[in-house]
Amino acid sequence: MKLGLQVKIALAVFALLSGGFAAYYVLVPRTPSEPGKLVIPGLRREGDGQFDWYRKYVMISNVRADLARNYLGDEIAVVSGLLENRGEKRLEAAELKVTLLDPQDQPVLQQARTPLRPGIGIQRPLHSFENRSFTIWIEPLPPGWTAGQVVVELSGLKFEE
Q1: What class does CATH assign to 44-159?
Q2: Nearest to 63 by CA among 119, 124, 115
Q3: Which of 45, 97, 99, 136 could make an SS bond with 79 (beta carbons 3.0 to 4.6 A apart)?
């Protein structure tokens, strides 16, 4: 008889926890997860004097695009490269504009991504004269894109305060 009581208590606790998680999921607003929708306070972009002046010190090199498959078996683009800070300021975030080109060098997809930002990866800024590799996954792929030309440009910076 005690076993029956323990099972009932366990089921009641499970029901309460499940209900709590369901209510949390429905009621708590979530931040958008779409590419280019990430908001980083203090990110400076083109037109901002500090961004326009400092961008010449941030180099993007060794850019490469490959086709891969995600866990569901869908094809994705994996864009990788090296981000280098050749200036004197520490960078807390860097936003990159990734453009996939077709065989005629026409853009078929363009997305903004922030591979360097607070809260992910190495938990510190990109220091002066330091470099760091980046990898960006792009899915879904535009129809017909077969690991062709890719262009990666700096589109935003946040300096460490």
Answers
A1: mainly beta
A2: 115
A3: 136
Buried b (16+ CB within 10 A) or exposed e, 112-149: bbbbbbeeeeeeebbeeeeebebebebeebeeebebee
Sequence-distant (6+) residues with CB within 8 A of 96 are 60, 83, 112, 113, 114, 115, 134, 136, 152, 153, 154, 155
**DSSP sequence for 122-140:** SSS-B-TTEEEEEEEEE-S
Residue 40 has φ and ψ, to the nearest 5°, of -120, 110
- Residue listed under structure tokens 């901002």: 48
Run means of pLDDT, 10 residues per run, the chain, 161 residues: 70 72 53 55 94 97 92 92 96 95 89 87 85 93 81 95 80
pTM for this structure?
0.73
**Alpha carbon distance 141, 103 (integer Å):** 15
Sign of CA dihedral 134, 57, 92, 110: negative
